[in-house]
Every structure is written in structure tokens, then in C-alpha cells.
Task: inverse folding
């Protein structure tokens, strides 16, 4: 007789634009009488997902599934990294970058069936100083957008897009110095991203050659484009060809130290962070078990 797997399902009630009560109802409809024993909980405050994930590890659960966006995924994954407990993702945020990268289904019924199938893959994670990341981090313009997006109540792609347009015109490139693999690179850039997956979310691909299980982080240095060329650059992001332009520069490494301008904001997995002007980025190879299709 097959032993049932035990999972905890966490729902972030404030991420994205999905109806979270509806998500809970569909989960119950799909998982009742299934081969999974499950419990559903709503997260209540920042860091709650990490606490609940750590408790699940202590209890010996098989997986913690999170219904939310990249910030929610980060919070739960932080409690599961370097353990045998798998991370499941039901995409329910505004961008869902890691979910898009892993080709997870966005149809709720199919997403739940993916959890039931329980196919697990190991991927890398990374740290920036003492902070955890699993999708993508950045300093500069993308972090400025993340700060503005965190302050609005109405979520979703179009809200994010409007913020990008509004912030771009007045944003001034910042100064960065990067040290890795014996190299020192100095640039004035619109933004510098550290990509474990290939995208911010919504298939906005900033690092087309990023691989989440190669033990490397992709450094993406993006210059500010003249306004007349901005629409073309935007389209190149969605066509996964920004790496073919003269305004993007890429490196792969296991570890990098970056010195940034004091006023350059930063985000990790879409959430703004307060961090030193000297940052240390380091890959934690194959440290996170993720349920994939």
C-alpha cells in the first residue's frame, strides 16, 4: 500500500490578483480523497511563510506548496533550502518569474495535478550578503520599479508596466564595480541583475541563457537605451533576444562582489531590500528541491 505524502499548502492572501478563497476551494476539490495528506494555511505577515516552512521541515513533511508570487516563493524557499523537503508552486502572483522559467502550469487544476504527480528537481539558490534568493536579484532601475510596485494596492502586469514607463524617463544610471574570477569590471549602468532563472516574470526575459541548475549565476549589465530605441529594447526582452543587443552585457560566475552607488536601490526576487553598498553574491548549488511538471 502506497504511503501518503504529507504536504503543507500556504496561500499568500495579498499577492497578485487571484481570488485566494477560490484557490483554496479548488485545492480542496482536487485534493480531497487524493494520495496526499494536506493542510492549508494562510500566511499572515512578512516572514510567516519562512517560519511555517521551517516548522514543516521539523515535522518531516514531504513538501510545502505556496500559492503566491516570487516574493512568497522566496519566503517559503528560504525555510526549505538545504533540506529534503520539496517546494511546490501554484503561480498566483503578479510576475511569477520562477514559475514561468520552470514551465509550471498557470491553470489552477493543472498546477494542483503537478503537485500530485510530485516530480522533484534540484535547482540552485543564491545568497546576497545574508539574504536568500532563488529567482533573480537586481540593483538599479529594476529595483526602483520594485520599490514603486510594492507601494501600490492594485497589482498585476499592467500596473507593473505603467510603473516601468513612469520611472524610466527620469532614472539616471548608477556606477557599479564588479569583482569576479580575477576580473574587475567598472560600468555605469541602468541596472545590474543576478539571474538564477531567466526572467523578472510575465516572460520578461532578461537573461536568456540562464540555467537554474548549472551552479552559476548570470550577471546581466544593462545600459540605458535612448528613448527612440526603448520600444525595440522592450520587445527584445519579451522575444528573449536582449542578449543580442549592444546595450546588454553578460557573464557567468559562481561568486561575485559588487560595489554599488549609495543611492542605487536593490531587490531580491522582486521585493525591495535594504543592503550594504558592497554586496557578495554566492551560488548555493542544487540546494533547493522543486516540484516541476
Result:
Amino acid at each position: 500500500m502506497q504511503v501518503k505524502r504529507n504536504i503543507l499548502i500556504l496561500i499568500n492572501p495579498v499577492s497578485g490578483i487571484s481570488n485566494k478563497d477560490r484557490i483554496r476551494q479548488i485545492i480542496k476539490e482536487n485534493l480531497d480523497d487524493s494520495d496526499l495528506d494536506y493542510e492549508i494555511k494562510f500566511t499572515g505577515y512578512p516572514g510567516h511563510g519562512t517560519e511555517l516552512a521551517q516548522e514543516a521541515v521539523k515535522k518531516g513533511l514531504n513538501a510545502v506548496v505556496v500559492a503566491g508570487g516570487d516574493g512568497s516563493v522566496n519566503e517559503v524557499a528560504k525555510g526549505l533550502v538545504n533540506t529534503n523537503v520539496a517546494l511546490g508552486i501554484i503561480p498566483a502572483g503578479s510576475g511569477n518569474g520562477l514559475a514561468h522559467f520552470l514551465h509550471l502550469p498557470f491553470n489552477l487544476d493543472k498546477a494542483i495535478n503537478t503537485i500530485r504527480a510530485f516530480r522533484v528537481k534540484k535547482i540552485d539558490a543564491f545568497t546576497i550578503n545574508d539574504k536568500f534568493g532563488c529567482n533573480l536579484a537586481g540593483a538599479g532601475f529594476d529595483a526602483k520599479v520594485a520599490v514603486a510596485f510594492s507601494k501600490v494596492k492594485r497589482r498585476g502586469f499592467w500596473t507593473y508596466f505603467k510603473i516601468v514607463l513612469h520611472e524610466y524617463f527620469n532614472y539616471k544610471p548608477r556606477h557599479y564595480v564588479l569583482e569576479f574570477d580575477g576580473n574587475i569590471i567598472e560600468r555605469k549602468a541602468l541596472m545590474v541583475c543576478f539571474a538564477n532563472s531567466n526572467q523578472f516574470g510575465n516572460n520578461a526575459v532578461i537573461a536568456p541563457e540562464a540555467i537554474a541548475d548549472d551552479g552559476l549565476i548570470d550577471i546581466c549589465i544593462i545600459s540605458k537605451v535612448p528613448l527612440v530605441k526603448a520600444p525595440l529594447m522592450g520587445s527584445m526582452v519579451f522575444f528573449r533576444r536582449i542578449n543580442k543587443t549592444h546595450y546588454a552585457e553578460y557573464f557567468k560566475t559562481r561568486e561575485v562582489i559588487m560595489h554599488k552607488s549609495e543611492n542605487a536601490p536593490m531587490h531580491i526576487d522582486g521585493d525591495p531590500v535594504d543592503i550594504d553598498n558592497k554586496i557578495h553574491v554566492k551560488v548555493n548549488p542544487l540546494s533547493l528541491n522543486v516540484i516541476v511538471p
Summary: The mean pLDDT is 91.
